[in-house]
From TrEMBL:
This is Extracellular solute-binding protein. Gene3D superfamilies: Periplasmic binding protein-like II. InterPro entries: Bact_solute-bd_prot1. Coiled coil: none annotated. Keywords: Signal. Residues 1-23 form the signal peptide.
Length: 550
């Protein structure tokens, strides 16, 4: 076992152990009066959000004759997850949890475990005549109900359904079109054409300042970068060090396969490594955070980033006189030996198995009923728009003559207003209230037609994503259909975290030259590391679960 392998396994095991923090949960916590409901929720203090004094909180309290009291955490995923686990383990937990999926939410396995312990209350019998909007949403979008139903067949919580078109294709490449025009180049369509463009960015001074300060290709974390670069060689979902999804798995010949064991994966890594070796990829692409890449995108010295791999071009702000905000356009999937696949998340990209809302056994029957009515209100159009966006006439207004919906085939429904800095920030719950954002709701929002303005940013993303739609891979593994429960789920949690985090680390090492992708010895060592981490058992568990779901 190599030292690199040991470090990866230890890190994965540490992450897996944190999931056992629920064992100390008490089944008989103290309660509060029926007209006082306690809720654990993330609070965006950076945007001056105060849930206790929030305008939407006040609206709910008046509408449902209740006093809402909050135990809050941050929008930092690691800190939020730790605080939630501590809250549960202490036994002194609230009546309900209302979370944000991309920060921290309950996994399917957590729901079954906590439900079995009696900590969470089943919601099946609470969904009916008193929750007409939720029932209607389940009927309109059957996938929403499927997502809410745990592997044991019960509904222990409500997830957030967010049918986000641009989120469904997360691994995009954004390239500076002004630089292409300056150099007389076209957008690349193949891996080798991309290499030629990046070499020109590096050597031909496209920003015209006479200095060799151009960064041809940058990224954060490397997930989007490798996914975009490798899909022409082998289907590669966007990898994440957290190991929350089985990004290393694909489907080959109808069977679940470990993509990093295949020669095509080696070819894709070899291509990426050659770009890095030639100085065409930012040395910090695998390690820098969002703040670091924004510093480069917004450099006071001028435009220095030629392209960046990410879901959308948030690394450049709109306040530069040189107009760099408008210079970056999406590049369609490259065509290589494997075709022109794009990473696709399976639709409703903002949705993931598990739940953002649960009710605990601290909640009395009266509270349970009221909590479900509150969630049902947030599923309704009126509750949704007020909960997510704020006060009508202040944060949003209805459509006016000439307004156009994001999807121009739909009737526009509302328009979010740009407010003076610091105003109206504490009027909504934001994504906490985002329980049912189907395509009709999201794409009916009024959006400016000028994509080069901040007001037209969502349309810019919509139009860019159309380049990727239709490029879903035949090798995509629909892991969301493969439910794993009980002791097998515990086993899977450890293996998945270890395998996925290790592959992320090893891929970065191969690309940066710490490991030599051209060395048969290093490649064999990598394969042995995967075996030692349980890759074969990993595939077997998902294969059995997927077979059972058919």
């Amino acid at each position: 076992m190599t030292s690199r392998f040991v470090r990866a396994a230890a890190a994965g095991a540490a992450l897996a152990v944190s999931a056992t923090a629920f064992a100390a949960c008490s089944s008989e916590p103290e309660t509060t009066p029926d007209d006082v409901i306690t809720i654990f929720a993330p609070q965006d203090a950076a945007q001056e959000q105060n849930l206790d004094e929030n305008a939407f909180t006040k609206l709910l309290e008046a509408k449902f004759d209740v006093d809402l009291q909050f135990e809050t955490t941050t929008w930092d995923g690691t800190a939020a997850g730790e605080k939630r686990q501590i809250s549960l383990a202490s036994g002194d937990y609230p009546d309900a949890y209302m979370l944000i999926p991309w920060i921290d939410q309950f996994s399917s396995d957590e729901l079954v475990k906590l439900g079995g312990q009696g900590v969470l209350m089943p919601l099946d019998d609470l969904i009916g005549e008193d929750t007409p909007n939720l029932v209607a949403a389940f009927e309109k979008e059957p996938g929403f109900k499927e997502l809410a139903t745990s592997p044991d067949g019960k509904i222990w919580g409500i997830p957030a359904w967010n049918d986000c078109f641009h989120c469904s294709y997360p691994s995009k490449l954004w390239m500076n079109s002004d630089w292409l025009d300056t150099l007389g180049l076209e957008q690349p369509t193949t891996p080798e054409e991309l290499r030629a463009v990046l070499e020109a960015f590096k050597t031909q001074d496209p920003n015209g300042n006479g200095a060799a300060d151009e960064i041809p290709l940058s990224a954060t974390g490397g997930g989007s970068l490798l996914s975009y670069l490798m899909n022409p060689f082998i289907y590669t979902p966007e990898m994440g060090a957290e190991g929350t999804i089985p990004a290393t798995l694909g489907v080959v010949g109808g069977e679940v396969a470990m993509q990093p064991t295949r020669d095509e994966w080696r070819d894709g890594i070899s291509y990426a490594a050659s770009l890095y070796a030639d100085g065409l990829i930012d040395e910090a692409a695998f390690t820098q955070n969002g703040e670091a890449i924004m510093a480069k995108g917004n450099s006071a010295e001028g435009v220095i980033v030629g392209s960046a791999a990410m879901m959308h071009p948030w690394f450049v702000s709109d306040d530069h006189e040189d107009g760099r905000y408008t210079q970056y356009d999406a590049v369609a999937p490259l065509t290589g030996p494997n075709g022109s696949d794009a990473t696709y998340t399976g639709g409703a990209a903002g949705a993931a198995p598990g739940a953002t809302f649960v009710i605990t056994n601290r909640s009395s029957e009266a509270k349970q009923k009221k909590l479900m009515q509150i969630v049902d209100f947030m599923v309704s159009y009126d509750g949704h728009v007020q909960g997510e966006f704020g006060v009508e006439g202040v944060n949003w207004v209805g459509p006016e003559a000439g307004d156009v919906a994001l999807d121009e085939t739909l009737e526009p429904n509302f328009k979010v207003l740009a407010l003076p800095e610091g105003e109206g920030l504490n009027n909504s719950w934001g994504p906490i209230a985002q329980f049912f954002t189907d395509a009709e709701f999201r794409n009916s929002q009024v959006t400016a037609t000028d994509v080069d303005t901040p007001e037209g940013y969502e349309r810019r993303l919509f139009e860019a994503t159309e380049l990727y739609a239709g490029h879903e891979s035949d090798e995509l593994f629909p892991y969301w259909e493969a439910a794993v429960t009980g002791e097998t789920a515990k086993e899977l949690a450890t293996i998945q975290t270890n395998v996925e985090s290790f592959v992320v680390q090893a891929a970065a090492e191969f690309v940066s030259g710490v490991r030599d992708i051209e060395s048969d010895e290093d490649w064999a060592e990598f394969q042995q590391n995967l075996t030692d981490l349980g890759a074969e058992r990993y595939v077997q568990i998902y294969q059995e679960a997927w077979d059972a779901s058919k």
